[in-house]
Design a protein that fits this description.
Elements lengths: L1 H19 L41 E3 L2 E2 L2 E2 L4 H7 L14 E5 L6 E6 L8 E7 L9 E5 L4 E2 L3 H7 L4 E4 L5 E5 L6 E6 L8 E5 L11
Parallel strand pairs: 1-7
Antiparallel strand pairs: 1-2, 2-3, 4-5, 5-6, 6-12, 7-8, 9-10, 10-11, 11-12
Length: 213
């Protein structure tokens, strides 16, 4: 009897194990819920001259034939100035048609102007510049091609093969980027210098020599 009981017990255990086993070619078990896989992120910074401009960080502004950042050719001078940080200033008594800004580290400055004759005239020029005799490399806002203050002649001409070179009426030289818009981009140089000390968007034939003179 002990032998039979043992045999029967072994048979029952074998059948139970066979019923629990999954066939080799059977269905794959359903996946259990789990946390979503983390999405890949990029450690790279946005490309120069792209994305939304930060009113407080003028180096994020994009230079185009339409203007620089939120300051646009044809825009209302007073309304534009009112929307900018208070670090922008305008001397209403002596030079009411121009607004100025200086970087905290004095690396570059910016200004924009309207017509001087009539307070209702729109913005006609926006400029970013640094000390003309000490420019050494990129600083300030740039175009979508990544060029601005400190760009070399070769870099500008490589980015804009159709650009035109010329001599300023009063002093210096420039490279102008042709545009079908009212405004045009000018890169300004001291005579014979290799790097641009200013980039200006203007509706005029060339950038103004003086703003409040």
């Amino acid at each position: 009897m002990r032998v039979r009981a043992g045999t029967i017990s072994l048979l029952i255990a074998t059948l139970l194990l066979a019923g629990c086993a999954t066939p080799a070619n059977g269905p794959t078990p359903s996946a259990t819920a789990s946390e979503p896989a983390p999405q890949p992120t990029s450690s790279e910074s946005p490309s120069p001259g792209t994305g939304e401009p930060d009113p407080e960080d003028l180096s994020t502004w994009t230079v185009s034939a339409e203007g620089m950042g939120p300051v646009l050719i044809g825009g209302d001078f007073d309304a534009t100035l009112a929307q900018l940080p208070t670090t922008w200033t305008s001397d209403g008594a002596a030079c009411s048609w121009a607004a100025f800004w200086n970087a905290p580290d004095a690396s570059f400055s910016m200004h924009f102007v309207r017509g001087a004759e009539d307070q209702s005239e729109p913005i006609s020029e926006i400029s970013a510049s640094t000390m003309a005799d000490s420019v050494t490399g990129p600083v300030g806002p740039v175009t979508t091609e990544g060029v601005g203050i400190g760009a070399t002649r070769d870099e500008i001409l490589a980015a804009y093969p159709d650009a035109e070179e010329g001599t300023a009426t009063v002093d210096g030289e420039w490279i102008r980027v042709p545009s079908e818009s009212d405004g045009q981009i000018f890169f300004q140089f001291l005579t014979g210098a290799e790097r641009a000390w200013a980039v200006t968007v203007t509706t005029r034939d060339e950038p103004s020599y003086e703003v409040c003179g």
